[in-house]
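Reproducibility note. Readers wishing to regenerate the assembly model reported in the main text can use the exact inputs given here. Chain order matters: entities are listed in the order in which they were concatenated for prediction.
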Amino acid sequence: MPKFKAAIIGGGSIADKNHIPALKNLSDLVDIVAVCSRDGSKARALADQHGIPHAFADAAEMYRTCQPNVVINCTPNTLHYPFTMQALENNCHVLCEKPPALHAHQAREMADLAAQKGLILAYNLQLRQTSEWELLMRCKTNGQLGDIYHIKANFLRRRGIPGWGYFTNREMQGGGALMDLGVHVLDLALCALDYAVPANILANTYDFIGKTGGKGLMGSWDPQKFEVEDACMAYLSFPNKASIMLSASFALNTKADIDRNLEVFGTQGGAKLFPFSLYTEMAGELADVHFSYLEDVDIQLKNTAAFLDACLGKPSNVCTAVQGAILQEVVERIYASAER
Amino acid sequence: MPKFKAAIIGGGSIADKNHIPALKNLSDLVDIVAVCSRDGSKARALADQHGIPHAFADAAEMYRTCQPNVVINCTPNTLHYPFTMQALENNCHVLCEKPPALHAHQAREMADLAAQKGLILAYNLQLRQTSEWELLMRCKTNGQLGDIYHIKANFLRRRGIPGWGYFTNREMQGGGALMDLGVHVLDLALCALDYAVPANILANTYDFIGKTGGKGLMGSWDPQKFEVEDACMAYLSFPNKASIMLSASFALNTKADIDRNLEVFGTQGGAKLFPFSLYTEMAGELADVHFSYLEDVDIQLKNTAAFLDACLGKPSNVCTAVQGAILQEVVERIYASAER
Amino acid sequence: MPKFKAAIIGGGSIADKNHIPALKNLSDLVDIVAVCSRDGSKARALADQHGIPHAFADAAEMYRTCQPNVVINCTPNTLHYPFTMQALENNCHVLCEKPPALHAHQAREMADLAAQKGLILAYNLQLRQTSEWELLMRCKTNGQLGDIYHIKANFLRRRGIPGWGYFTNREMQGGGALMDLGVHVLDLALCALDYAVPANILANTYDFIGKTGGKGLMGSWDPQKFEVEDACMAYLSFPNKASIMLSASFALNTKADIDRNLEVFGTQGGAKLFPFSLYTEMAGELADVHFSYLEDVDIQLKNTAAFLDACLGKPSNVCTAVQGAILQEVVERIYASAER
Amino acid sequence: MPKFKAAIIGGGSIADKNHIPALKNLSDLVDIVAVCSRDGSKARALADQHGIPHAFADAAEMYRTCQPNVVINCTPNTLHYPFTMQALENNCHVLCEKPPALHAHQAREMADLAAQKGLILAYNLQLRQTSEWELLMRCKTNGQLGDIYHIKANFLRRRGIPGWGYFTNREMQGGGALMDLGVHVLDLALCALDYAVPANILANTYDFIGKTGGKGLMGSWDPQKFEVEDACMAYLSFPNKASIMLSASFALNTKADIDRNLEVFGTQGGAKLFPFSLYTEMAGELADVHFSYLEDVDIQLKNTAAFLDACLGKPSNVCTAVQGAILQEVVERIYASAER
Amino acid sequence: MPKFKAAIIGGGSIADKNHIPALKNLSDLVDIVAVCSRDGSKARALADQHGIPHAFADAAEMYRTCQPNVVINCTPNTLHYPFTMQALENNCHVLCEKPPALHAHQAREMADLAAQKGLILAYNLQLRQTSEWELLMRCKTNGQLGDIYHIKANFLRRRGIPGWGYFTNREMQGGGALMDLGVHVLDLALCALDYAVPANILANTYDFIGKTGGKGLMGSWDPQKFEVEDACMAYLSFPNKASIMLSASFALNTKADIDRNLEVFGTQGGAKLFPFSLYTEMAGELADVHFSYLEDVDIQLKNTAAFLDACLGKPSNVCTAVQGAILQEVVERIYASAER
Amino acid sequence: MPKFKAAIIGGGSIADKNHIPALKNLSDLVDIVAVCSRDGSKARALADQHGIPHAFADAAEMYRTCQPNVVINCTPNTLHYPFTMQALENNCHVLCEKPPALHAHQAREMADLAAQKGLILAYNLQLRQTSEWELLMRCKTNGQLGDIYHIKANFLRRRGIPGWGYFTNREMQGGGALMDLGVHVLDLALCALDYAVPANILANTYDFIGKTGGKGLMGSWDPQKFEVEDACMAYLSFPNKASIMLSASFALNTKADIDRNLEVFGTQGGAKLFPFSLYTEMAGELADVHFSYLEDVDIQLKNTAAFLDACLGKPSNVCTAVQGAILQEVVERIYASAER
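Running the prediction on these inputs yields the following structure tokens for the assembly.
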């Protein structure tokens, strides 16, 4: 069968370091035909650097000229919606950066259009590709966890407010620690509960450190321009009584530089994701199972491959358009609870 | 001034191992004049063993005979209310075991009667006496934490359903992991927020492991008679936007045998209780402060002493009747949310 | 049913510290009626110390006077055979110290007489009562190990030649490290292979350090009187191709003070005994299973109880007379190979 | 003196990564004049890549054309014998990959021909070049170990069946874990005993995991085509009563990914190879000696240099033709015992 | 030979806990005949408690009545001189607590009188009895250290100003950290240099923390009454160019609660005392030797026994009168340098 | 403002690896115009390799031709004085390698000439640029240490006599471990005391290992040509009673390969430099403060930048000419004391 023709929308570092290398590694399946960025010179430079034939400042022109059937949307959050809609309308499968959009209704429209067009829309939530997550899913399937009823999901940075880009700009990003970090572990937690929709949500957001300033471990930020939450705490309760405690922060007075983890508690066993451990009973005794030889994988490469598998109609564990719409809705409800 | 005359109500192990030794250590302040237990022979045996003059099966008779002015109420949860009320009516200061009562309205009545009588009613929440908690309170007072806005409070046992007593009996205990374990760390968390009353609570309770059975690290329990929650997860949000994540379990598929801890996050610093660590900025750098030489204390002795200080009108950090009423109300609202 | 009447033969420290306390702990099942030692005053002292009614220097007199139905034989190795035979002839069940005897033919005779009399003869190989060994047996039964095909059994001391008793005296002990230490782990290894009889054995014994002298970690020994092996290395191959590597030493230039362990390798999993770990595959990955909460048990108490269970016709994991005969035969063949 | 002229026989990865780089590092002593591989194009590519003047598919032609005086035989096991014999007949010194050959009689013929021709034949057993082994030999020479009487030699992989090449093919390799891994530590153990010939050998081989399949840490293998042993256990007893316990595995349910080590027990001291530790007595106390500053060396480079030293008549610690013949004989006797 | 008759002078805790138990353990060599304390009731109580026949408030009377031939002087520092002189004049061997005296001339007089009388005068510097120190001396004798040319001697406490006794009283103690702690490690360091007399000394003393106050790990002290040094730093240079760096503190802002150690540097090897390690070269490599099995000893018992050995004319490693005089002289010169 | 024009004097590895890369990294401030080495071909090669326009064998010619205004003096110790004087006379600011000179009077002359000419003369003591040192200085400024009264300064190598260059040549280097290593930590210690001049110094130097030979961890050295001290121990006492214990070695029988550290003891707190820890009291308890996130910096780059800052009249923490003169004087007094 013919190879996919992929266009990259967005000329930033995530295109350069993540998506383009992944696609080039999958060159038996896909060719990159164009890069498109509002700043045409950035598009040009990126195309030259990676040997991509075309560069555009205008997406419409790109569609006319190159007729891609796959689009990688790696624009800022605020542009996820318009550029994904345009791509779908141009009959392209889309792999869109996270979060899905700024608003829940946008993510739903995106999912609806993809369904209507019979196209794949997927989100780049790559933690699903870690060996640890895949092992957790296998343990779940094998029954080693039983029914999962509680999850603690953390993505905490002590002083990790990014000192570059739009990360502290509410208009461009739509939010802070939850939008940027929390969605990763929230997506995993929802997966563990089969993407059920929460019945109730109670949450709070904070911005004390962001607005005060301090030592930065990811560059310096300007407290004057800090418009988003530096921490978000949320509790989600589900119709079947399962629950999630979610903690996300750009800045928090906590021990570790970074604490990104998931703890899952089920009727037969519990598990911690990093390093992967299983807590259960075996031969009548309490058993702690460690897996020392999990493979180190390139999670971007695997997620891009999983997206292409989906486009080819194969089984795939990529985050779907429908899941993305639920995820965005949950994010919106968390912010709503925090502002009540 | 004359010594206090103390009566012990309840003839179980907590009287024998905790309260009587503590009072005997404070013999310059207090004499134990009587032990009272519905099972008169238990009262007799305890009195003989500890050289206490009187033993009673009937409390009313005890009050008539001995006229104590201090009562230690170490009966099962369901009897905290009636025996405390009776003691107050007999003009005794009361140190009552936790939880305050089975229902919020009981704890409020108890507080009201104590106030009306001008008596001290206090609860035996001894974690307040740990060196770590006192240090946390000093750090809070000194401003080393700034304003506290989030707390994670855990009291988790992996397989610690007590295989004796009434711990799994709903009628006698009123609940399970929350009533027995959770109240300890919930009390500390509420203290850290100056015992504010939560605006919103969302919670869930579980009983999967308790009702299924398995390895017991605190004796064996009978799954058929397991009537309470083996785990309780709750989120509390306060009028000033502060929040508490509370996790308590008798049984959970988690790593450690026991995980009893508090993490406190403030605008100037964060702290973990056991071992006590402070996470903050110092001289422009991120600083982790450890305190290796904290004194190991007898927390029961210190709590009993703190109660007597209160009776003497001195400053005291013991849990007050009013705080106990709030604590009981929060417990009741957590259960209510879990049953919604 | 009536209690057993037990007589102790041998007045040494193992009677005093191990067997008598265990029997006293089982006083609902058994009464100790007599102590017998060639040194009558030792017998007398031991009886007085433990409140045992009778003491004898002559065993025949003891049988006449007290008519016990249970005998604990805790004499030196060389007396295991005659006193056990006498006890069986006096219609007593016998728990005999290890090793079973000095020679294989003795152990076989002892087993034959017990069978003929319908009496229980068991050996005091208490490592079978450790929580770790019981867990290993459960794992074997559950299939978590598959078929076991190789075992490494070690009981190594770096400088642990006992500086007291008969441990270095060939006539009294029959041998050194193998007779005293090796039999413990050899018994476990043979159990793991269902007490199959080896097809071939190749072995060596050494006495370099014992005959030279040096630092003693268990008292000082006299190199001039060192008549036994200080180390024994053996390889056992079984009809089904399974194999055991056995290493035992009183003295060896090795790292640890004491290294007493068993590693078991099976088709589905492998296990190490101390601390108990299971090495296997789970959910498609290599898994290391740790059991942090194994109970600490009094292995002498459990072994004595297991012996009494056997006497009562109940299931029991105590080392049987038939197993003891095989064990002694293997020991004899190891020595024979070493002297070839 | 003139430089050696070396020819490489065998065009695989071990030529490319090990032998050719080592020879190039020793360019003041030797020039590589030719590469020879049955697959002429592989020879050509390798020659081009490394700037070697000639490439041949036919060895005879190579000898005629290039007249080398040194040959590196890095062919598959089955070809060690014919190509080494041919090289010796062409008056070349030979460094041959391990194991020496498939059969003991081949290795003896090779040694005989080398002796008759006055040529050096050596085997590439590079562990002899580790700093640890050289230190062990110095300790042995200095008397710090006394007489060595027992050795435990392990080369165990948990799941390390190579998923490439001929490693599971009996015809090409002659065996599995023993042939590929075991010979390395067996060679060291025999060296430690001055390459004495064992008086007795008892051994077993297994192939349960290899024939069943499972997780592979060195690529995937096909259980259907697994024809060799995945584990080999052996005991060697020597005329002077010394003994070796040898354990080698491609796959075994054991803790570590790889456990390659030697423990040596002598009358004055014992030693463990990795990390090097000496266990002995000093100043009347038990002493553990650690050597933290051993040099990290390129063992292939050192072994090739040692071979060239031998060719130049200098002292050398390379494995000699005579040692190789003994080693092969021991391997053959191990397999014979396992098949008895 | 007849047993020694010992009298105890001084009724404090060091008599009660150290010296009397040691003497009682040596009851085959010595009987305690009397206790003498200026506070007669203390003497009486101590005598009764330990079953000692006589108690006195007046030493002269004690000598008349009991005629001891051994005296243990465990009075405060200021009384070491007068009571030791009196004991010698009464023809008693004397074991005197450290430091020898308050002034160098006193210690010299004491040594002179002992010499003149032919009596043993020894000081209770018990660190000489640790297994580690004895091993160091053996290593020195065996030549494993070569010539020792530098020593770092530390006895540092972070906040260890004793909150009881006379420790902060200059008149009674003569000094602080040096007098109480420093002398122990100074004695060892001087021993290591064969008790040579320093050619030059440069030193400083401090009292900042002692006079300011703070957290006390050995009870609370009164900064107002702190009259001695809380830290003393000194450098000693010897005629043969060897040197000692001495650091002693009651209070210092340093890491460990207590750091009591000696590092010795010689031409052939260096050693650290606790835990004992030897740093040297062996077999041409840098070697770190650890001794994991050193015996835990009762250093007071061993020092008392060593004193009695000296009294019996046997070899003994106890600190002699002459060494004590040098030690006191060095202490005096250190204080003199600090006050220059 | 115009860029500086820098000339490099000295063509060794420290020019190549440290100074030239640092200057190139600061190319917005400075151009390298020339390299000058007595060995003209070395100068030429270095210039070519780094793209520097000019190379000279004669410094006078260099000054005439290139007219630099900045000179980096990286010649051997013996040439620090003449080349720095020449550079100052040619009106250049100078960054001179450490130690300042061979003799104290030289360093004073250098400082005097720099002052007279109004030029910057600074020394390349780069440890001042570590994050740890800068943090220590901030703690000192903030009062977290109080008054510093004692410092232990160590720069110890176990076997680190450099096997190259002039390091063991007295004439070229002026000394050994003190001149090469000790000056680094001595400079820091003096800084911590505000570069006070010591009132008294007592010191010793040793050369036992250097003159005997042994294992070398930094190459092999020739004991026959070892003319300097391999170890230097010194004690410095200051007018305000503060003290420094300084230990420096090329070779010493000590534990660690390298031990380079500073411990600082003050009235309010103490600190250890690597890893940076602060020991103090906080909230009434003893507190150990760790700083886990200190930045890893290029200390040469920072020191060169600090030197240029000084040349530009900006604040700078570089070691000044006046400090260098004091440092050299202290070094000279240490050697004088050692030779007394």
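We highlight two features of this model. The two ends of chain C are 53 Å apart (CA to CA). Chain C is about 35% helix and 25% strand.
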